[in-house]
UniProtKB/TrEMBL annotation, chains A, B:
This is AcrR family transcriptional regulator. Keywords: DNA-binding, Transcription, Transcription regulation. Residues 16-74 form the HTH tetR-type domain. Residues 37-56 bind DNA. GO terms for molecular function: DNA-binding transcription factor activity; transcription cis-regulatory region binding. The keyword Transcription regulation applies. PROSITE patterns: HTH_TETR_2. The keyword DNA-binding applies.
Amino acid sequence: MAVEERPKGGLRADARRNRAAIVAATIETLRRTPEASMIDIAAAARVGRMTLYGHFPTRAELLEAALTHALERGEQTLGALEPEGDPRAALVQLVESSWQLVDDSRALLVAAQKELAPARIRELHVRSEARVRELLGRGQREGVFRADLPVSWLLTVTHLVMHGAADEIAAGRLDPGDASRVIRETLLGAFTTGNAA
Amino acid sequence: MAVEERPKGGLRADARRNRAAIVAATIETLRRTPEASMIDIAAAARVGRMTLYGHFPTRAELLEAALTHALERGEQTLGALEPEGDPRAALVQLVESSWQLVDDSRALLVAAQKELAPARIRELHVRSEARVRELLGRGQREGVFRADLPVSWLLTVTHLVMHGAADEIAAGRLDPGDASRVIRETLLGAFTTGNAA
């Protein structure tokens, strides 16, 4: 069912501008109105419906493009961190910065989680996951994170806990102001071997 | 987009038999062939395609019916457990029995996770979750499970970890024989306060 898409570089300048405006409008509009429709987003982007559907025939494709854009922006922030020193402190810093990014695009993520398969959302995170994976492996080698669970599993749990928190906030079951603490405590509890400070 | 469905009780006897055969065939066929198509399932159920699509117009509806059926069967198993005594041991027992059920319908769950929204899958688990919720609350009151995280969050983590394990096995990143241990260690690590045995 994949629609063949011209590479971004192959679009004319006005089409590139429209595409960028639509993606930006998707992120902004969902932040204010999590249930915003494709038509609401076209209006916010100041493009016609035909233009919107020309770039993104389905809501799933639009949400995937917006999530990819948000992740690329996030990469710039996370890439500036230097996860050295105590792996626990580095994990807390990395997870808290990541959560600020998730929280900022929370409505987008929740909308994407309704439209895209979990495995696809996970694939889109491959770059941001590499950084966490490296830190988890170092923490295991230094004896700070438990080594009786595979690194790939610790990474999965990190992903699930952060995305689960976004869903729980959307469902009204988790206080947004408490989410960062809940994520941190859950991951440190699950990953450390009882020698945590 | 919901298709109006006649209540089960309103179906004629042969239609009820066909429906039950389709649901049973879905579970069996996916167990052997996780990528089985609607047509494969119709053949296994010995019904025509028109009959299959008459009962379940979409793959999502078929998978939801099959998952609901598997959960109802699972409820009978879990309802026979008596989660008394040490909350840690009771949680381990409940989670290991639940995992056996998940593991038995793992391909169905992974298929459902591709077609149904996470929130919908969560809703289908409402009955089985009540039992875990009660145990988690008791463990908190007895000071065995950490009380600085909401029960609703511990329940969410339990759900995410078990379903995440099914996805990780399907992706080839987790050894099926190790999954039960990994789930148990992750949840006990996250939920206990360091006074675990």
